[in-house]
Amino acid sequence: MSARTADVVVIGGGIVGAACAEAFSAEGSSVELIEERGIGGGASGAGMGHVTVMDDSEAQFALTRLSVALWEELAASLPAEVEYSRCGALWVAADDEEMAEVARKQRFYLSRGVRAEALDARQVAEAEPNLRPGLAGGLLVPGDRVLYAPCAAAWLVNRAMGRGARVHLGVRATANDAGVVTLSDGGRIEARHVVDATGAASGGLVRPRKGYLAITDRYPGFVRHQLIELGYSKSAHGHDDESVAFNVQPRVTGQVLIGSSRQYGVDDSLVGAHLLSRMLRRARLYMPRIATLHVLRAWTGFRAATPDGLPLIGPSPRNAQVLLATGHEGLGITASLGTARLLADWVAGRTPPIPMEPYLPNRFPAEVPS
Amino acid sequence: MKDSLACEIVVVGAGPAGLAAACTAAGRTRSVAIVDGNTAPGGQIWRGEVRMPGIDRARISQVRLLSDTLVVDCPGDHSLLAVQGDRAVEIRYEKLILATGARERFLPFPGWTLPTVVGTGGLQAIVKGGMRIAGKRVVIAGSGPLLLAVAAYLCRQGARIAMIAEQAPRSAVFRFARTVARSPRKLLQSISLMQSLTGTPYRTGCWPIEAVEGAVTLSRGGKTWSEPCDYLACGFGLVPNTELAALLGCVLQDGFVAVDTCQQTTQPGVFCAGEPTGIGGVEPAIVEGRIAGYCATGRMDEAARLFPERDRGNRFRRALEEAFRLRPELAGLTGPDTIVCRCEDVTFARIAKHGNWRAIKLQTRCGMGPCQGRVCGPAVEFLLGIPPDSVRPPIFPVPVGLLSEDL
Ligand SMILES: Cc1cc2nc3c(=O)[nH]c(=O)nc-3n(C[C@H](O)[C@H](O)[C@H](O)COP(=O)(O)OP(=O)(O)OC[C@H]3O[C@@H](n4cnc5c(N)ncnc54)[C@H](O)[C@@H]3O)c2cc1C
Ligand SMILES: Cc1cc2nc3c(=O)[nH]c(=O)nc-3n(C[C@H](O)[C@H](O)[C@H](O)COP(=O)(O)OP(=O)(O)OC[C@H]3O[C@@H](n4cnc5c(N)ncnc54)[C@H](O)[C@@H]3O)c2cc1C
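ok -> structure tokens follow
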């Protein structure tokens, strides 16, 4: 079969691939998106959808802040099913040591122009009456958002299709050497650029990191903000084989999403009772009354983890025609828009809004995905 | 802390199949337990009645019965997690017999979500639970012998059955009736059913196309008319409860749990009996339950004596399936605005845009509500030919507190 041509072929229809397809189609490029399962059916369908400015490193901060701003630009156009909600996030401090972290975090945000309010014990109790009494305080980040990623991804893909992008569902892209993408349905596409947005399936340095979530029936008002314990970063960046952290989210439906866990070295998607109960116990520790809420379902997903906790965005050192857009660990829903913007600017030769160096795959000399 | 219980043989479901299995196994092993979600044993058909023909009642006393106890997960090897009121119970077993029965199939059509439109079994259950039906006008619509059983019951409770609308064509129902007539017990049953229904119009090739407050529009032979009623009770056959089997990793075939001649599933030591292996009513359920009970206690010879009876049961199941196959016209009743998923208020138009169950779920939330797809899953499968995807724990909603106890 003779190969078709396209300016950009995006492999992977998660939120990152969807954002890339949208951004390149906006450039006027001809785009083809290949998704093996369904749009948003990978990590994007399993994640929490907290759209957040994070402060673990300057680079992480820059990318997430850019991304939150880009989501905010889209906000008015997002349809209701994306469930975009400006609920804000509340980082919960259990003790004085964590209150010191509240102060540090607040300084970090404020000095970079991000709103953040330190709350004392009483204010935290007022903000979230179902948290247990006796917490030390917290940090409210009003600019954080929540959205429902599968519908956001579908919306981005539809937008790209409106500009002529073609989407192949149920098709696996098996090879992408020298810009030729071979499809499992026998098709071949010759592309000027191939975007690898395959998430945890990227291989190479990217390791899958399993996470659990549970969702409850509808209890409107039970939780008002995205709540995260301040110890979360320890869990997110530790290298323990298994960790849990208190992390709950109000859905616009009134449902409560309960997370979170991180686990290396497990590649089956089974919902193990042991880790599920450990994660739920953590939630009860912070919100005792959550014990009475009914869980409808629990599931797992895989984050794409890199050795330094930052994504891989830019040309693959092994094949410059392949642009990597992967390795977003627990922040890909947030960072999808920023990632797409950086790649589109790079291809167009424009100066990106933030320096791209920290995310360039060539920071790792070898073993990045091709 | 969670309660725990360990038994050599654990049966899930105290319907005819589960009771038969447990009573057969009892006495031969150190311990047999039945775990059942209802308040009293008997399953869908007997619902706590004292008369349970075909069950060796003398043995029930040797079986430990946990009523009001729902199995929600299988947290590890040879262990189940169940919920009993506000307690979690860990149940350990050496052999497991699944006898989880079936539920009714609902099909969406305009008006099916009105409060006066109920399931046939659901209406029967609330009347058994004390609701007065005397003097009320009821139309019963759908498919299968259950329509007659429910109509007869409601008649005895004083309801006025305006009509029984059976979607299957007359020829198919007659052929089925002749099959049934070959079994004297079944013949007697149907005669007594028919006697209590004398004078009730039974229309074949007839189905509901729309319900409104106080009436239903029925269609038959190209004609439609409005039939006044206080209640429209619908049931389009039964759907096997296979969620627990699927969670345990048992292979399903065409929607039913696959079993070998010993009623053993593809998971060693896990047996299955009754409706989850094929829809066919009480008799096949009891035979399969007994075979499972014998095989789980190593008495293959005794089990083998029941094989011919099981073969007859399987022939009956096939005849039933053949006769009451749902006609394709029923898939055309749903309008674009008809709700398919009641939990999440998802319309047919939104669902029909997607090609697989995962996309339907993710993009529309169909099947993500408290019923966990038990109602809309089979409906979507019939309407679009898309079978539901994998099962996720817990298989019934459970309080966070009970899922988070130490294991
Ligand atoms: C439990 C959990 C909670 C999370 N919470 C948050 C949160 O609150 N906020 C946040 O920002 N992020 C969160 N994340 C992270 C976020 O979900 C991911 O970073 C993000 O979804 C990654 O998107 P993606 O498009 O890169 O990957 P995916 O969504 O996994 O998409 C990759 C797609 O590529 C397809 N694919 C793979 N290989 C091929 C191939 N060869 N051919 C064709 N298609 C292919 C796959 O089918 C898949 O659909 C969470 C993740 C988890 C697991
Ligand atoms: C709504 C309805 C009404 C019916 N009415 C009649 C009738 O009037 N006359 C007639 O002849 N036939 C009737 N039938 C058919 C009849 O129930 C079956 O033919 C027969 O009872 C099948 O027996 P069984 O043991 O396979 O299943 P069932 O009788 O359905 O028993 C299954 C049992 O398993 C329990 N169970 C299921 N899952 C779990 C779990 N996870 N944890 C704990 N317990 C669980 C259920 O609560 C139930 O008690 C009805 C069926 C249904 C669905």
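Residues 58-74 of chain A form the longest helix (17 residues).
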